[in-house]
Amino acid sequence: MAFGEEAPTRVVVADGHPLVRVGVASAIDGEEFVLVGEAHTGLEALALVSELKPDLVILELDLVGPPPSELIRHCHELHPGLKILVFSNQAGVQHIAPLRGAGIVGFVAKKESPELLLQALRVVRSGESWFSHSVLVGSLSPQRPQWALTEREQQVLDHIVQGKSNYSIAEELSISKQTVRRHATLIYEKMGVANRVQAVLQAREFAK
Predict the structure, then answer these.
(1) pTM (predicted TM-score)
(2) Which residues, 6+ apart, have CB-to-CB distance to 148 below 8 Å?
(3) Which of 27, 58, 101, 102 is 20 to 30 A from 202, comparing alpha carbons?
(4) How far apart (Å, rounded) are the C-alpha atoms in residues 142 and 122?
């Protein structure tokens, strides 16, 4: 690499289908991106992230191993600077919401062309996000996902969205602050988000 040239982005592909991995590798391996590892299970993906510290992981959701959101969080724990781009056919709203909460930078549907996948990689490498149109339309559906909140959890979430503190919520619902925190933790888990801010953003998005 000549002085001043940008180093190629180091990529790991995690997909259970060898033909898909070969196809992705042929589409991206070049001067801009270099394939440094392939995984066909979630545990293999975690091992490669830990060992190789890639810049970006192209991730299929249907991998043997930890659930997708858990896998994504573990990857970020092992390598905080990692960018994760999902490449999958599972593009329903029930998949997108928790994945966004877990920290993906984009989602490309497998029906897209190799050229579009390459374009998506360039966008997320620059620090932006990329979601295929079909995925974005589904994720912004006004239908609320099935979070399976209890009546009390929904009350707590409504107060959180209004910007109220745990103390205020406890006072209004006549419960302790510890109970509010416990409800909030369960709400975040069910919504597939990591914190209060993400819960508010997601609740407002699906209330449109």
Answers:
(1) 0.65
(2) 190
(3) 58
(4) 30
pLDDT tens, 105-162?
989 988 888 888 999 999 999 888 888 866 665 554 444 556 778 888 888 998 998 8
List of E strands, 67-129? 83-88, 106-109
Cβ-in-10-Å burial (0-12, 13-18, 19+) of 155 comes to middle
Q: Indicate if 57 and 84 belong to the same structural domain.
A: yes
* Pair (38, 132) in one structural domain: yes
1 lies in some domain: no
Regarding whether 133 and 35 lie in a shared domain, the answer is: yes
Q: Tell which residue, 146, 134, 57, has the closest CA to residue 102.
A: 57
Amino acid at 104: I
**Do 46 and 131 have their domain in common?**
yes
